Amino acid sequence: MMKVLQVCSEMFPLLKTGGLADVTAALSPALTTLGADVRVLLPAFPQMVKALDATNSVAIELSNGHWRGPGSAPAVLQQGLGPIAGGAVPPHTARLLRLAPQPDGLQVYLLEAPEWLDRPGNPYLNAYGHEWHDNAQRFALLGWAGACLAAGLDDSWQPDVVHAHDWHAALTPAYSRALRDRGVPAAPTVFTIHNLAYQGVFDAALGDRLGLPGWMQGFEGMEYWGRLSFMKAALLWSERLTTVSPTYAREIQGSEQGAGLDGLLRARAADLSGILNGVDSSVWSPDHDPLLDTPSFDIDCLDGKALAKTALQTAMGLETRADALVLGVVSRLTEQKGLHLLPPVMEGVIHRGGQLALLGSGDPVLEYRFRELAWQYPGQVAVQIGYDEPASHRIVAGASVMLVPSAFEPCGLTQLYALRYGTVPVVRAVGGLADTVVDANEHTLAMGSATGFVFGPLTAHALWLALERALQVHAHHPEQWRLLQRHGMGQRFDWSVAAQAYLALYTGLL
Ligand code: ADP
Ligand code: GLC
After folding, report:
1. Helix (H, G, I), strand (E, B), or coil: what is residue 128?
2. DSSP secondary-structure letter at 269?
3. In terms of pTM, does the model score above 0.85?
4. I want to staple 360 with a disulfide (CB 3.0 to 4.6 A). Which of 85, 130, 245, 331 is the partner?
């Protein structure tokens, strides 16, 4: 049985700041269904501690930089963490807990380091929205713990493969490499890039605290414009690299989207692949969605969708017009998401009878711009700033259109959720959006493959042209709209497919 350790810093519903959490939550059970023996290494952020059951757990101690494993951990592991955990730098105590299987079967190693991890709020940012000053060590520790498990720290279970996610877990392959160089065999790493724009880049002076040999921090190593990039470390030392859509896998090998690492990614092209994310149907399905208080619906009967629309309009204070095309947005408000294109076209949308229901938070300038629109168009534009799980389901279910005009998008999940709920995506042709939405034109409509509206240039004008087409079909060709919904609802972006691809990748490493 293939033993796989997932290393990540968020997981729905324990802790979520974005799509990463949805993916890490769905991947483990999907792999388990395929017969893999999966465990997850998570940092003990307060949200994790609160949600996990830690009774009957087994502690694997780490104190003053010395692992005190329960059994026969290789000697080098006993001294290896000194630079991260020792000296004047906290944490003076850190340990791994091997939890008993959770009620849903999830098997967890919880990395405890109270001085570093027991902080409220966002796991990466302080209350002022700035990165925690000690993020380099905090997440180095996660990587170190992953590498130690890869090297057999827990003598009752050693993974065959370690799968690390995003920059937070990106030092796992670096420490694994360092251990191997010191004669300690460690399981190979698969590393998934969920977003190359967040790299974990730190001051080079922090290098002393990482406990990695000098060459690994130099130009041949994780050096990045005079600083240190955790992401670069993973791209160098993971045995396999993946990202979350085939198109993004190609895009990041070019200078425009390569974030300075495209050369390295090109050099590793043979080891890099794109595996599309799936949809967790236990969370996102219109025929059983516990977060909706309206009747369920499915591909054959959309009555429930009309009710979901009215419920959405009522909940958000929009006029309850059945004929309105409701644009839905559920998103982080950052440059990535391209939502600055939306305010300039809203007047046109409203003029044509459209409405906007937006849920999101992030950039204060964008937040203010959308609040302003809501004041300007009461009853037609509704804006909820914040993070709200039930509200996100209401929008996905009740909107007519899900808008995702991203500048770049590694995969994107909201367009996939929308497809399930008969909510027609309007997206920009980048990354996973390009891989998952088929533009409606005469040909694709006739072929039965059209599922949404896709535009190219990152301009308000191009967005407007796509929205105009959507408004037109919605108002004047209801039978075509119904076809789009049917095609979309018939799409299957299942986790079983993605999990099979990952499993094949793991198997190839043995
Ligand atoms: P990203 O990970 O880049 O933010 P994705 O589309 O992959 O984008 O995933 C975003 C996830 O976060 C989705 O599950 C979406 O529903 C959720 N989400 C984003 N913003 C909010 C919000 N304000 N409230 C609730 N859920 C949100
Ligand atoms: C990142 C990306 C998003 C992707 C998600 C899960 O947050 O921005 O496109 O869907 O990770 O892989």
Report:
1. coil
2. G
3. yes
4. 331
